[in-house]
Design a protein that fits this description.
17 helices; about 85% helix
Amino acid sequence: MSASLLQRFLAGMLATGLGSLSVVVLGMLGLMVSTRILPAAELGAFFLLQTLVIFLAEGSSFGIHLALARFLSGIDAPDQQRRITSTAFLFLAPAVAFTASSLWLCAAPLMSLLEVTLTAKLLALLVSWFVFEAFLKLTLSHHQARFAFRAIGITNALSSLVNLLVILTLVLGSGEGLAALLAAKLLSRVAALGYAGLACRPRLGLEFDAKLLRRMLRYSLPLYANYFLSFLSQRADTLLIGSLLGTTAVAFYEVARRIPESLMQFHESFLQVYFTFVARHALQQDKCRVSEFLHNSTRFGSLLLGLGCVITFGFGREIVVLMFSDTYLESALPFALLMAASSLLMIEATFGSTLAAVGDSTRPLLINSVRTGLLMIAYLVLIPNFELVGAAAAALTATAAVIPVNVYFLRRRGIVVDKGAVGKPILITALLSGLLITASTAPAVVRAGLVISYLPAALLWSIVTRAEIAAARGWLSRHLHCQPEVANIAADTTSDGSQR
């Protein structure tokens, strides 16, 4: 990888990563406040409604945001940018209007299932949140294709800050419950969409190209179907726990999920940059560069995620008590298992994103179909018998089963996949996690020693070299103090966020 390309890639990662960091930190603070004030049942009801809003926002798009991110990448002509962007937004608008109307009419029976009293205020907050969520998703896809990664990072940071401030004002200050959490989400999305639209204005008009839309949908619909399977596989546990065990159990499970889910947000910010760069090289038929991106991403990603898993298996109980109080101590083991499951899911998502970026939008759907089928069987068997632990164990098992399938299809596309880049960190993580489970009652110093041994093992097995660690530290130090690459990117960017 050339130095200039690496600098652009890392600068984009830094911009979106800092935005994701603010999302994680500020979101965690908001949850820490909520878990100490609100009843678990009310918090669980909010998590179920959040799942519904995200599902509808993604579902009503028919995957048009996925097509926009790929079709707009590499397009520099303003008239072509306007035609692609306008077609996507004009397609989304009536779909969102129809879904919002349906939600307004169907909200009453839904709220009754959650044992929540529906008021006009709650209904207005819920529907409005959905509308802003849907358009924000498409706007950020536009920014991703235009390489406006700094705008994406600031948008995410602003959204998280507004969300936290509203929670502190209404939940901590006024003692309000579900309505306050919904209001916080709505206002955060209003602020985010407002800033995103100003920071990198999409070129919009009344240009609707039906032929282009058909091409975009042909590309996006398999990925759209893949999204539903991903959503089902990632959120079916919450829905099943809510129906089988109640909203209180949902709150315990979502607390266990919060840190792994936060890491998934970091990974999504990585994929925003990764997909754009890989798609551009794939369009140039540069498979060697694509393979290089994939190899380094999976190698370093697996290394860092493995370390996180070892830490959670060693000190999961202490982390849960420190962050969410001993009320949620039951979430400790599910937390560790979900951390392992999310780590494998991020690796699998990188493989799937690579397949999509090289133009294969059908294989991720096939792979996800297999994973979802395995997952549903595991959920139905394990949740009734093992409750929260069973749900987390099911997610871990099903995700591990499909990683080899991803590798097979990538190799058929001519993309070189080094099995050792993923397999070695997973093996070290599994061995140390097993030891930490057996030593769960051992003194903290013993568990800390096992955790620390992960890094020497990685060095001895050549997963990462000392030279690479020194180079990464030097680059990060220079970047955080001087930010030369970010400055170069900013200077090379037009006022609307596009690359010159």
